[in-house]
Amino acid sequence: MKTSFDVIVIGAGVIGASIAAALVESGLDVALMEKGIGGGQGATRDTGGIVRALELDPALRPLTCRGAHHGRTGIVHALFEQTLKRTGVAYIASSEVCGRYLDAVGSEGTQNVELHASVSALDNGRFTAFCKEECLLIERNGGTVDARACVSNLCRYVSEKATFLDHLAVDRCVEREGYVEVHAGKLCLEATWVVDACGADGPLPRPYGAVHARTIPFTRMSCDDAPSMPIIAHHLNTYLLPLGRNLMQVGGQRRHRADHASDLNLSVMDNEHDVVERVARLGFDAQRSLAVVTQVAWDAYTDDGRPLIGRSNASSHIYLATGFCGIGFKMAPSVAELLAFELGGLMTGVQMDGDHRSIMKAFNPSRFTEVALS
Description:
The protein has 374 residues and is α+β, with helices and mostly antiparallel strands. The chain has helices at residues 14-25, 42-46, 61-64, 74-83, 95-109, 147-161, 271-280, 328-348, 354-361, 366-373; strands spanning 4-10, 30-33, 50-51, 84-85, 89-93, 113-116, 135-139, 143-145, 163-165, 172-176, 179-184, 187-196, 212-222, 231-233, 238-244, 247-251, 257-258, 290-301, 308-311, 318-322. The strands form three sheets. Strands 5, 6, 7, 13, 14, 15, 16, 17 and 18 form a nine-stranded mixed beta sheet that branches. Strands 1, 2, 9, 10, 11, 12, 19 and 20 form an eight-stranded mixed beta sheet that branches. The longest helix is centred in the C-terminal third of the chain and has 21 residues, at 328-348.
C-alpha cells in the first residue's frame, strides 16, 4: 500500500472532501482519511441546505461567492452545481440589517438582489401582517444544496483519482523536519502537508480556545403551506427551509456548547416548543404546524464567527480548515480552491499574490494564539 503523499486531508465532511478533490485536480498526490463514511459526521451528516452569498461580515464574502477566484470553476464548483437548486433565498430583516447586507456585497453584488420596503412581495403577502416593521431582500441566485449527495460525489472523485481511506480513524500526527507522520492504528503514513478538516472533534491539537463544539438543533414540521423559497428571518433569529408543499425545516435555538463534540448534550431539550413559537410569530397556525421530528447535529464554531484556515505557526506543516459554524457547505467550493492554490504554490515554491494573502488573513489561526498570549 502507498504510504507517502504530498497532502493528507483528515476528515471527509463537506470541507475536507472539497479540499481533497481540489488538491487532486491541481495535480497533487493526495490521501483523504475519514474515521467513518464520507459526510457521515457532524454538520454534514444532518444539516446542509441554504446556500447564500450575502454576508454581514465582509471578510466571509470571498468564501461564499459562487465565482472562481483563480479563473476556473474546478471540479468542486461543478459538483456543487449538480446538487444546487437555485430557488432564491428571502431575507426578512430590518432596514438597518438590509442596508448592512447591501454594504457588504458592494455595487456589483446588488445585481443579484431585490430590495423591498415590505415583505408583501413574498408569497403573495402572507407574512405582511406579522412582519409590519421588516423589509425584504431576495437573493436570486441563492438556493438549496444536498450536501451529503455532493460529498458522496466528491469522495468518489477522490477515490477514482487518488486515495480515499474511510473507516480509518487518525490517532495522532507527528511533525518531523519538512513532513508529517500520520498514525492510524498500525498504519503510519507520511505527507509533506496535512490538512485538519475534522470539524468539532479532531485528533490534532489546535490553538487554545479557538474552536468549540456546539449542537445544531432543527425541527421538521408539517404545515398547511410551506414557503416558496428558503427564508432567513433575522428578527426571529431562525430560518425556514421548504422540504415539500406541506413540510419545512426550522432552526431551533436551544443549544449546548462544549470544548469537544464528545462532551455535547445531544438531547432535543425544548427546541420543538421553541420552533413552534417562532413560526407562530410568522403567521403559521400553531395548532396546524406540527413538529414531526427534531434532530440534533453538531458543528465547530469560533467566537468571532470566522473559520480557521491556515497554519497555527509559520513553521508547521499542518493546515487547519475548521470552525465553519455549521455552514461550511456554502463556503466549501471557495475554501477548497483557495487552499489548493496555496498548497500547490508551497509544493512548487510559488509565492502567493497579494489578493490571496488579503483574503486569507482574516482566517489565520494565529489570531487566537495572539489573543491567548496577550
